[in-house]
Amino acid sequence: MFDKVEAFYRPANVREALRLLQSGKGQARVVAGGTDVVVEGDDSVRYLIDITHAGLSYIRRRGTASVIGATTTMAELEASDAMQALAGGLLSRAARWCGSALVRNLATLGGNMANGSPAADMATPLLVLDASVVMVNARSRHKLPLAEYLAGARTKRHARSLLVEVVVPEPPNGKGCRWSFQKLGRTAVDISLVNVAAGLQLDSRGRVKWARIALGAVAPAPMRASGAEQRMKGRILDQALLAEIGAEVAREVSPISDARASAEYRREISSVLTRRALEECSAHVGCSL
Amino acid sequence: MKNMELHLTVNGESLNWTIAPGELLLDVLRRQGYFGVKRGCEKGECGACAVLLDGMPINSCLMFAAQAEGRQILTIEGVADGGKLDPMQEAFLDHGAVQCGFCTGGMVLSAKALLERRPDPTEEEVREMLAGHLCRCTGYRKPVEAVLAAASKKRNTARRMKPVAEVVR
Amino acid sequence: MNGDRAGQSRDRQGAVSRLVVGRNVRKVDGVKLVTGGAAFTDDVHIPGMLHGKILPSPHAHARIRRIDTSKAKALAGVHAVLTYKDVPRVPHTTAGQAWPEPSPHDTYLLDSKVRFVGDRVAAVAAESRAIAERALKLIEVEYEILPAVLDMEQAMAAGAPVIHDEPDSTKIYDRQRNIAGYILREIGSVEQGFAEADHIFERQYRTQRQQHCPIEPHVTICWLDADARLVIRTSTQVPYHCRRQVAMILQIPVSRVHVVKPRIGGGFGGKQEMLLEDICGALALASRRPVKIEYTREEEFYMARSRHPQILRMKMGVKRDGTVVASQLTVLATTGAYGSHSTTVQGNTGSKVLPLYRAAHMRFECHVVYTNAPVAGAFRGYGCPQGFFAQETLVDEIACELGMDPMDFHRNNVIRLGDTDLLSAQLGEGKEGLPRLVRSCGLPQCMESAARAIGWTQKRKSLPNGHSHLRRGVGMACTMQGSGIAGVDWASAFLKMNEDGSFFLQVGASDVGAGADTVLSQIAAETLGVTLDKVIITSGDTDITPFDVGAYASSTTIISGGAVKKAAARVRSQVLELASKMLDAPVDQLDCANNEIFTTCACRKSVSMTDLAMQAMYKEKLQIMDGASHFNTDSPPPFCATFAEVEVDTETGQVRVVHLATAVDPGTAINPMQAEGQVEGAVAQGLGYALTEELLLDAAGRPVNPNFLDYKMFGAQDMPKLTTILVETDEPLGPYGAKSISEVPINGPAPAIANAIFHAVGVRIRKLPIRPEDVLRALHAERPANLEEELLTQ
């Protein structure tokens, strides 16, 4: 499968990794956990660049933000105290859905984003948390909103760059703030048919102060349901609003039919999971629905 | 294709192998005679190729052999201590958790790793661990029972062993 | 744990209580399996071994106009390239069945026509997998693409492309209409039966293409030994059929072929097939080198075999009190491009299913058609899962319509001890069969115990459903199967004694992971009066072990076990005869147990097996040894009751099985722990069949989901709580009263779950797998699934 590979590199830092990527002339592939690269089995790859020795496995605070190195594994995200404390453990919980325990010991957060799957389970919670990615290339280091990155993840746009970390700004917190991750698969270990992450902040009178809804596997890339988010602002989250949001989300998504599920089913489930996510968020804050 | 050297430890033995840079760990292990590492799907779905990498279960079909540089690997061949079976292996036999045996090695390794981390796992935790191992023979009930029984036995043994260890110290 | 069941093991003969049979002993091959011993087909390095690869057809139906292998042959490292031009053309079936195989002989080692995506175009043997793959790409093929038919309902239509237009295939029922096989059998007169009925119910059901998914894909290694005989080391359930078929296809004498079956990583019927052995053997002969062919998981999905998809129309006539008077099953099935197991699987859909009810009038009609789809074959249950899905959901519907508890409906109507199933007499393995007399029947107890486990009576009346979107329901199904094919399956065994009082047991039977080696050793040990460690078994090697048809049709325990028991009894007589001399006691006052022969009279004299063996070998110059063959003229049915509790999410359509209770009557369980394992494994496959598993094809016949990422079988987290109950009976035709167990439990989950879904949410799902979106669509439909519409009342 990878019999054209001429060299396997283990750069000790990002600069060296970038140099190797540059000299690979488009025939180099970055390997973190390897789980997606191997399954994809791209026959044309000549050079493999293992970035797990490049100092990118970390979970840190930087100012008020949390910063997650690209080669941090799903298992590490799951087990991390800092991640379990951040946004009600949203990222830890979502990480636990990323494949089997065996896969989670290898698969990395950077890999999950760089693969650019519309169903990537970590993308929706990160979108809800307004995350950015830090991209480094030979000339610059720049921060890019995750949504923008994901839109181009499956193109050649970032071919000469390396995703080095994911930055999660301090999320709204306090008593009125809750999070949810919902996933529907055919079996426990499965690619999402639909996944939904949501974050909600209510004011003291129970009105929606801040809301985020993101959906996976229902559009070419993981997406925010901005229309639905807008509709919720300043309103009391009751059954009528939930129904309205569900309908709005169903309008916003653009799913496809495949072997896993039909587009119609995915659309309907988008509504159902969104409603359940919001119910979970509001149930925690004692909102009576 | 240029070959490269790989230095790693397998079942406690320090080894130097010559590999191709694009080779997968599964292929290299089998070529070196670790036949207990099984080829089931080559996509990381079935878990038959599982080995412990520095104590953590992984799918060796999803990993380039070169990624194992300097790491410790345990395959099912390294689990029994000479002729003495590991208690997890005993439990799999006693509970009828082995049928064709093709997925067994991977399950035993994952189960051992789980008990290192969680000596007193719940059934749910055992099932979550086993979810990485497809088994077409058993329906999973007996493997789950075997892991829970091995865990309970290990805890009891550990309790009994404790005073002895203190005396030795 | 090991001794737990000893107390329960009933002693029916009143003689010495059983010491080995009925005990939960460890698998005799267990240690090598838990330690990763090199035990499977591919666990060998053979110097000079080449990698074989098959070029699969990219088209569903095409003629090879031109094929040029020169570039592939010229590639460094390639040692053989074969096309239809290079091999003998022998029509055959790949079905591993007893000679003469009842399946159509419509398959060729390689052919100038391809009939499904994945059909063999050419084969190469090269020094590595990578070179072999590169060589495949260098083979130039010019296809004349032919119109294909994928829909089984279109296959018989006028103008449909004829898939088997070659003149030399045989045993095809009607090749012009793509009909591989046709079956029509009737007992009594259904016309009269329906006329006598107060209510007639008729519904249509659809079942899907399920794949076996053994975790070990098919793998075969062939080489020529020092005597230039062809050795075939292969993952097979049928070493002897394989030897005969390969010899015939490659046109070499049977005596020049040696088939070795090592440990097998699961078969489930998929390896009851001569699948890679012929082409691998041909490559080994062509290259004069050892050759291995190993399917990738993707190839396993569409180039191996699968379960026959069917469309079933089931009609039943009942009296007002629920008594079944007539039943009729009309089936359209597709065998895919080749007719492997086509008439026999479908024959079972009638003969093993309809006779569960004591109707005087039964009719079964079936067309098995060719389509340009992957080939179907034998699969655990062998036609019964389809038939029981139709029958048991219809029966539930009838019971509900009549206001009866489905349990009562079953109690009143199911086959009983002493009944004779006459449909089986009409429908044998590709010919007339033999009537089945029910000599042991634990079905009523199965029903009662599984119902108790699930809490049937209480839950049928009220479940705490309230207004939640999660709704619970319970459902049930009863099923039966056979134990070997009556008058067809046979087996043999050979035993010889060693100096240390141990015995070598040689059987042709094929342990494919289900534990046959252990069960057969237990039977031998019990009969010989030795401990299990004194029996050393060798199985499934055509040079060493005597004949056995192989591991299929739930035959191994009853048929191979019967042979072992017979052989062991003969050896035991030889042992006792010598002991009689040594102990100076008449044979009828001797018994043996625990490696000792002793007098049963008060004198209490004894001799150990070891001493006796030494005496035999070095004083008497006698090798204690004997063999026996065995077959049955009846196929005793094992029975099963499956009860399911489900939770349906009415917003997503997801069905979670909460609890599945399965009670089986296997006759005597030779090894209860292993027997339970058979039930639980079958149930897991049955759950996947019910809810998630389906190999999908696109409009061009290409597989859409040939991997575990998209073909979803049940994992450890998906399984419900399982209750497994063995209701032991004593079958006169089985060794120590054993019947069979491995197939029957697979039949129940689909109908039990479908019935539980109806109980939970009031919709009838008549198509497998029951996907969440189908449930949701049914729930959205204003009136659930034409409930009244099709009910015809006289």
What does this structure look like?
- The complex is a heterotrimer of chains A (289), B (169) and C (794).
- Chain A has 289 residues and is an alpha+beta fold.
- Chain A is 34% helix and 22% strand.
- In chain A, the strands form 3 sheets. Chain A has a 5-stranded antiparallel sheet with strand order 4-5-8-6-7. In chain A, strands 9-10-11-12 form a 4-stranded antiparallel sheet. Chain A has a 3-stranded parallel sheet with strand order 1-3-2, with helices on one face.
- The mean pLDDT of chain A is 94.
- Helix content of chain B is 38%, strand content 15%.
- Mean pLDDT of chain B is 94; it is low at 164-169.
- The longest helix of chain B is centred in the C-terminal third of the chain and has 28 residues, at 141-168.
- Chain B has 169 residues and is an alpha+beta fold.
- Chain C folds into 3 domains: 50-146 and 212-303, Aldehyde Oxidoreductase, domain 3; 310-485 and 634-793, Aldehyde oxidase/xanthine dehydrogenase, molybdopterin binding domain (Aldehyde Oxidoreductase, domain 4), CATH 3.30.365.10; 490-631, Aldehyde Oxidoreductase, domain 4, CATH 3.30.365.10.
- The radius of gyration of chain C is 27 Å and the shape is globular.
- In chain C, the strands form 7 sheets. Chain C has a 7-stranded mixed sheet with strand order 3-5-1-12-9-10-11, with helices on both faces.
- Residues 1-16 and 783-794 of chain C have low confidence and may be disordered.
- Chain C is built from 19 helices and 29 strands.
- Chains in contact: A-B, A-C, B-C.
- At the B-C interface, helix 2, helix 3, helix 4 and helix 5 of B face helix 1 and helix 17 of C.
Multimeric state: heterotrimer
Low-confidence stretches of chain C: 1-16, 783-794
CATH topology type of the largest domain in chain A = Uridine Diphospho-n-acetylenolpyruvylglucosamine Reductase, domain 3
Largest sheet of chain C: 7 strands, mixed
Number of domains of chain C: 3
What top-tier CATH class of the largest domain in chain A fits best?
Alpha Beta
CATH architecture of the largest domain in chain A: 2-Layer Sandwich
Helix and strand composition category of chain A = alpha+beta
Kindly report the average pLDDT value of chain A.
94
Contiguous low-pLDDT stretches of chain A (5 residues minimum) are: none
Overall domain count of chain A: 3
For the record, the CATH architecture of the largest domain in chain C stands as 2-Layer Sandwich
Query: Terminal Cα separation of chain A, in Å?
Result: 54 Å
Count of helical stretches of chain C: 19
How much beta of chain C, percentage-wise? Answer: 15-25%
